[in-house]
Design a protein that fits this description.
The complex is a heterodimer of chains A (113) and B (343). Chain A has a single domain (21-109), classed as Alpha-helical ferredoxin (Fumarate Reductase Iron-sulfur Protein, Chain B, domain 2), CATH 1.10.1060.10. Chain A has six helices and no strands. Chain A has 113 residues and is an all-alpha fold. The radius of gyration of chain A is 16 Å and the shape is globular. With 343 residues, chain B is of the alpha/beta class. Chain B folds into two domains: 4-107 and 270-340, FAD/NAD(P)-binding domain (3-Layer(bba) Sandwich); 113-266, FAD/NAD(P)-binding domain. Chain B has helices at 12-23, 54-65, 130-138, 176-190, 210-219, 271-280, 319-340, and strands at residues 4-8, 27-31, 46-47, 52-53, 70-72, 77-83, 86-91, 96-99, 101-104, 108-110, 127-129, 153-160, 195-200, 224-227, 230-235, 241-247, 252-258, 260-265, 267-269, 307-309. In chain B, β15 (230-235) and β16 form a beta hairpin. The radius of gyration of chain B is 22 Å and the shape is elongated. The mean pLDDT of chain B is 96. The chains are: A mainly alpha (113), B alpha/beta (343). The structure holds flavin-adenine dinucleotide and iron/sulfur cluster (3 copies). The site of one iron/sulfur cluster has 13 residues of chain B, from β12 and α4. One iron/sulfur cluster is lined by residues 158-159, 162-163, 172-174, 176-177, 202, 204, 264, 266 of chain B.
Chain lengths: 113, 343
C-alpha cells in the first residue's frame, strides 16, 4: 500500500534496535559454525573478495549484521557472494566463511525457523 | 659455601635476576651465547614510551651484574639437566658446569617475516621489518629506500606473525603496536616531508603513557592510522610498493603506493627456549612458550623443582615487565634455595 504523500517522508529510524532485533540466525549459526564468533573485523576477507571490487559487498559487515540481527541487510547482501572461498584462505582467525554464507542462505531459504 | 645458581641467557631477564641473586649472596654463573650481554635490547636505539636510549637501560643492568656475577659469554648452552642433587649445563664446546638451581632466560626470536610471503619481505627491495628499521636508527644510517631515495611515504603494518592462525601464532605480541607508534614518530622527526601510515586492527596502548604517545603521533607528528589489515603487497617498476587493504572503518577497499613498508614482526619463543625446555623436561604453554606453574601467582616456577623461568621465554613482555620478572625470579629462587636447601 502506498502511503499518502504529505510532502515529507517518515524515515525509518537509523538506530539498531537491539531490543527488538531478531538474532535467531546468529544463535543458530553459532551452534552450527562457532567460528562466526571469533571474527575481529580485520577486513582481510573483503580486501581479497572479488565481489567487493566494483560493488559494495563486505563479508565482515554481513557477519556484523547477523550478530546484531539486522535481517533486512542480511537478505539484501547475502546473495552477492560467489562462494569462491578466497576469504577463507586469508582469514587470520580461521573463520569458516563459506560455511557461514551457506548456512545463512539455507536458513533464509527455509524461511528461517 | 654459597649456593650456586646457573642462569642461561644474559638478556634483560637473566641480567636482572643475576643482579638480584648476587646481592643475596649467591654465586651466579650467567651464560650468554653472544659476545656481550643485553639480548635484543642491544639492537634498539630508543625505547617506548619515553624515547630514552636503550643503552641507558643496558648500563643499569650491567651495573647490577657488577663484578660479582660470573658472566660466561660466547657460550651457547645446548643441554641442561637435573643430575642427582644438582643441575648440569653443557655448552656446544662440551664444557660442563654444575649448580643448585637453574634459571632459564633464553628469551624470544623475531617472527620470520618471509613466512608471510604475500607481504613481500625478502622478495621486494623496500619491505623492511621493525627490527631492521631499528638497526638503521641505532647505526645512525640515513633512512633511504634500497634505491637510495628519500622515502616520501612509509607504511607500518601491525600484527605481522601475531594474532594470525595461518602462521600458527594466535597470541598478541604486546610490544609491536606501541613500537610502531614510536618508530612512526621517529621517521617523522628524521624526515619531516615523509608521510607515515600505520595499518592496524586494534591498537593496544595498554601501558602507562602509551595512549599519550599515540595521541602525540597524530597531533604533533601527523601520523595517520588506518584500520585495516594488509592483504598483499606488489612491487611497481620503480620499486615502490602497491598495498591493498580494506579500510574497515569506511567499509571500502583501499589502495596505496608507499616507498617503504615496515612489518611489525611479533615474538616467537627463541630456538634455545624450545630446545632447552625440551631438554630439561618442562612443559610448554599452548603458544609454545615455557609454561609457568600459575599465570597469576607463580610466574617463575615450572613443573620441575629447581628449574625456574623468567622474561620473554614465557610470554611476550615489555622491558619493564621483563625487569620485574627477572627480579621476581631472584626472590623466588632465593625462597626455594633457603627452604629446601638442595634438590
Ligand atoms: C622491534 C622491537 C622493539 C622493541 N622496543 C622496546 C621498547 O622500546 N621498550 C620496551 O619496553 N620493550 C621493547 N621491546 C621488547 C624487548 O625487546 C623485550 O622485552 C626484551 O628484549 C626481553 O628480554 P629477555 O631477556 O626476556 O629476552 P632476550 O632479549 O631475547 O634475551 C635472551 C638472551 O639469552 C641469550 N640466549 C638464548 N639462548 C641461549 C643459550 N642457549 N645459551 C646462551 N645464551 C642464550 C640470547 O643470546 C639473549 O642474549 C621491543 C621488541 C621489538 C621486537
Ligand atoms: S578475514 Fe576473518 S577475521 Fe577478518 S574480517 Fe574477515 S572473517 Fe573476520
Ligand atoms: S567466498 Fe564470497 S565473500 Fe568470500 S571472497 Fe569469495 S565472493 Fe567474497
Ligand atoms: S601489540 Fe599490536 S601489533 Fe603487536 S600483535 Fe598486538 S595488536 Fe598486533
Amino acid at each position: 500500500m502506498k502511503s499518502k504523500d504529505f510532502g515529507y517522508q517518515a524515515i525509518p529510524p537509523r538506530h539498531i534496535d537491539y531490543d527488538k532485533n531478531d538474532r535467531t540466525l546468529f544463535y543458530f549459526l553459532r551452534r552450527r559454525e562457532p567460528s562466526i564468533s571469533i571474527c575481529f573485523s580485520c577486513g582481510s576477507c573483503s580486501a581479497t573478495c572479488p565481489a567487493n571490487e566494483n560493488t559494495p559487498f563486505s563479508f565482515y559487515r554481513i557477519m556484523l549484521y547477523i550478530r546484531r540481527g539486522e535481517k533486512l541487510q542480511i537478505a539484501r547482501e547475502i546473495n552477492k557472494c560467489m562462494l569462491c572461498g578466497k576469504c577463507r584462505l586469508v582469514c587470520p582467525k580461521g573463520v569458516n566463511t563459506r560455511n557461514v554464507i551457506l548456512i545463512t542462505r539455507d536458513f533464509l531459504n527455509s524461511g528461517g525457523q | 659455601m654459597n649456593k650456586r645458581v646457573l642462569i642461561v641467557g644474559a638478556g634483560i631477564a637473566g641480567m636482572e635476576a643475576a643482579a638480584g641473586l648476587s646481592s643475596l649472596n649467591y654465586e651466579v654463573l650467567l651464560f650468554e651465547k653472544d659476545e656481550k650481554p643485553g639480548g635484543h635490547l642491544k639492537n634498539w636505539e630508543r625505547l617506548f614510551p619515553t624515547q630514552r636510549l636503550g643503552s641507558e637501560v643496558l648500563e643499569f643492568l650491567e651495573k647490577g651484574i657488577g663484578e660479582t656475577v660470573k658472566l660466561i659469554s660466547n657460550t651457547n648452552i645446548i643441554s641442561a639437566e637435573k643430575s642427582d642433587k644438582n643441575f648440569k649445563v653443557v655448552s656446544d664446546k662440551g664444557d660442563v658446569w654444575y649448580g643448585d638451581a637453574l634459571l632459564i632466560t633464553t628469551g624470544y626470536d623475531l617472527f620470520e617475516a618471509r613466512k608471510k610471503e604475500e607481504y613481500g619481505h625478502g622478495i621486494y627491495d623496500n619491505v623492511f621489518t621493525s627490527a631492521e628499521l631499528e638497526s638503521l636508527f641505532l647505526n645512525k644510517k640515513e633512512l633511504l629506500t634500497h634505491q637510495n631515495k628519500k622515502p616520501a611515504r612509509i607504511g607500518f603494518i601491525h600484527c605481522v606473525g601475531s594474532r594470525d592462525k595461518k602462521v600458527g601464532n594466535v597470541y598478541c605480541s604486546k610490544v609491536c603496536c606501541v613500537t610502531a607508534v614510536k618508530q612512526a614518530i621517529e621517521v617523522r622527526e628524521k624526515l619531516p616531508e615523509c608521510e607515515v601510515y600505520c595499518f592496524y586492527m586494534d591498537l593496544r596502548m595498554y601501558g602507562m603513557h602509551f595512549e599519550e604517545l599515540y595521541n602525540e603521533a597524530q597531533e604533533k607528528w601527523g601520523v595517520t592510522f588506518i584500520r585495516g589489515r594488509l592483504s598483499e603487497t606488489a612491487e611497481n617498476i620503480d620499486k615502490s610498493l602497491q598495498i591493498k587493504v580494506e579500510d574497515t572503518l569506511l567499509g571500502r577497499p583501499l589502495r596505496m603506493t608507499v616507498d617503504m613498508l615496515v612489518l611489525m614482526v611479533g615474538f616467537v619463543p627463541s630456538k634455545s627456549t624450545t630446545m632447552l625446555g625440551k631438554e630439561v623436561g618442562i612443559d610448554f604453554n599452548s603458544n609454545g612458550f615455557l609454561k609457568t606453574m600459575d599465570e597469576h601467582t607463580s610466574t617463575n616456577i615450572t613443573g620441575k623443582p629447581g628449574v625456574f623461568v623468567a622474561g620473554t621465554c614465557t610470554s611476550p613482555q615489555t622491558i619493564t615487565n621483563t625487569i620485574i620478572d627477572g627480579r621476581s625470579a631472584a626472590l623466588t629462587i632465593h625462597e626455594w634455595l633457603s627452604k629446601s636447601g638442595t634438590v
